[in-house]
Amino acid sequence: MLGESLSENQYLILEKCGAMNLVIMTDNDFAGRNAAKNIVSKCKNLFNIIIPQYPNNIKDLGEMKNQNIKNMMKNYDNI
Fold this sequence. Notes:
The protein is mainly α. It has helices spanning 8-17, 30-43, 66-73, and strands at residues 21-23, 48-50. It has a two-stranded parallel sheet with strand order 1-2. β1 (21-23), α2 and β2 form a beta-alpha-beta unit. The longest helix is centred in the middle third of the chain and has 14 residues, at 30-43.
């Protein structure tokens, strides 16, 4: 997903793919947190929602190195 919202088509694709978990990694700013809230409200009854916490000085996933992302996701090894 790119942008600030989850389209109906994107939702249908997620619903049909059989996924059980949804990892939401929107930007770490007001717009990104708002987008995450909207996604959660649409998807909370269909998926286990996981929203990893970025380090305080990181605005988005693109600012992180692969190893930092792997370390951040270690808390969610059950997905």
